[in-house]
Write a structure and sequence with these properties.
Largest sheet: 7 strands, mixed
Shape: globular
Distance between the termini: 38 Å
CATH architecture: 2-Layer Sandwich
CATH class: Alpha Beta
Strand order of the largest sheet: 3-7-8-12-11-10-9
Radius of gyration: 21 Å
C-alpha cells in the first residue's frame, strides 16, 4: 500500500467513525468531539490500565492541558519538535488596536497582529509537568518514585488520520530513580503492556522506535535513539497493516530530565527517568477497528476484560 492508498484508508476510517457518531467533526483536521460510546470505551480502558499498574503504588497527579511556559522552554522540546509545539497567545493591544482587530475581523483579514505570548503553552506530553514538580521536593527517597499522570495533550500535526489527533489524551506511569530501577520498570511494562493488550484480542507487535526529531541534527538523534533502544512502541493496525499505529510507548530518557531539572537520587546522583504511555484515543480506535463500532457486540472475552 503506497502513501496515497494509506491516506485514502485513513480518510475512509475517519468517515466511518463520523458516520457511526463516534467522532464529531469540528471543521479542523485532527480535532474531534467524542460520543458517549467512545468515552465509555476510553473510561473502561483507563480502568484496565489502573488494574495493571495499581499495585506499583504510584502517586496520582492530574494537570490541566496547559504547561508553565518556563518549564516548556527548559524542557528542550523546542530543540527537537518546534513543528509540534502549541503556544497560547492573548490580545495585548490598546483600544485603538482593539478597533483595528474588529475591523480586520469584519473584513475577513488577519486579526492576530496584537496577539502576544502568555505564560502558558499547550502540554505536549502528559509527563512534562511531573519532572519540575518532583525536582522541587528535593532528593528522591531510596526507592525512587512512580507517578501516575493523565492529561489532554496537543501536537500541531493536522491530519486526516483519526489516530493522529491534534488534541488527545495520554495516560502515563513515570519511573524516576536510579538507572537500575528505571530500566527494570521499563522491562516490566514491556511485558505487561503486551499481555494487557493481548487480552483485548487485537493484533499487535512491539518494535524499536524513534521520535520525529526536527532538522538535520534530528536525524542523528533519531538514529541514536533507535540504536540504543531507548524507545519501544506497541503497534496495532488501525488504518493500515503496512503502517500500524503506535498505541503504547515505552521510553527510557536516561538522565535527560534529571539533568534539566536537577532531580537527584537519595545518594545524590542524577536521576534517570522512564515512562510507559497509553494513547487513550488510539486504543479506542483500535478496538473499534477490530471489534466493530458497537461494543455490545464485541467478543465476550473482551467485554469481560473491560466491563467485568
Amino acid at each position: 500500500m503506497n502513501m496515497v492508498d494509506i491516506g485514502a484508508a485513513q480518510a475512509a476510517y475517519r468517515d466511518e467513525l463520523v458516520a457511526a457518531g463516534l467522532l464529531i467533526p469540528t471543521g479542523v483536521d485532527g480535532l474531534y468531539g467524542r460520543s458517549g460510546v467512545f468515552e465509555e470505551v476510553v473510561e473502561r480502558f483507563d480502568a484496565l490500565v489502573t488494574r495493571w499498574g495499581g499495585a506499583d503504588g504510584a502517586e496520582a497527579m492530574r494537570f490541566p492541558p496547559a504547561l508553565n511556559r518556563r518549564y516548556f522552554e527548559e524542557s528542550d522540546y523546542l530543540k527537537s519538535f518546534p513543528h509540534l509545539a502549541g503556544t497560547i497567545h492573548s490580545f495585548g493591544g490598546d483600544e485603538k488596536a482593539h478597533r483595528t482587530l474588529l475591523r480586520r475581523l469584519e473584513e475577513g483579514q488577519d486579526w492576530t497582529e496584537d496577539q502576544v505570548a502568555t505564560d502558558v503553552v499547550m502540554t505536549p506530553a502528559a509527563c512534562y509537568p511531573v519532572y519540575p514538580t518532583i525536582a522541587r521536593r528535593g532528593a528522591l527517597p531510596d526507592g525512587g518514585t512512580v507517578i501516575d499522570v493523565f492529561s489532554y495533550c496537543f501536537r500541531h500535526e493536522p491530519s486526516i488520520d483519526p489516530a493522529r489527533m491534534q488534541m488527545f489524551r495520554m495516560r502515563e506511569y513515570i519511573r524516576i530513580g536510579t538507572p537500575e530501577q528505571v530500566v527494570e520498570f521499563r522491562e516490566t511494562w514491556l511485558e505487561r503492556g503486551r499481555e494487557m493488550m493481548a487480552s483485548l484480542e487485537v493484533p499487535l507487535e512491539i518494535d524499536v522506535a524513534n521520535d520525529p526529531f526536527f532538522g538535520r541534527v534530528g536525524a542523528m538523534l533519531s538514529s541514536s535513539q533507535r540504536e540504543q533502544k531507548l524507545k519501544f512502541e506497541l503497534l496495532i493496525p488501525v488504518t493500515s497493516t503496512q503502517k500500524p499505529t503506535a498505541c503504547l510507548s515505552f521510553n527510557y530518557h536516561q538522565d535527560h530530565f534529571g539533568h534539566i531539572w536537577d532531580i537527584r537520587t537519595a545518594d545524590g546522583g542524577v536521576a534517570h527517568t522512564a515512562c510507559v504511555g497509553f494513547g487513550m484515543e488510539r486504543v479506542a480506535l483500535a478496538l473499534f477497528r477490530h471489534h466493530g463500532f458497537d461494543p455490545a457486540g464485541w467478543p465476550a472475552a473482551v467485554r469481560k476484560v473491560l466491563w467485568g
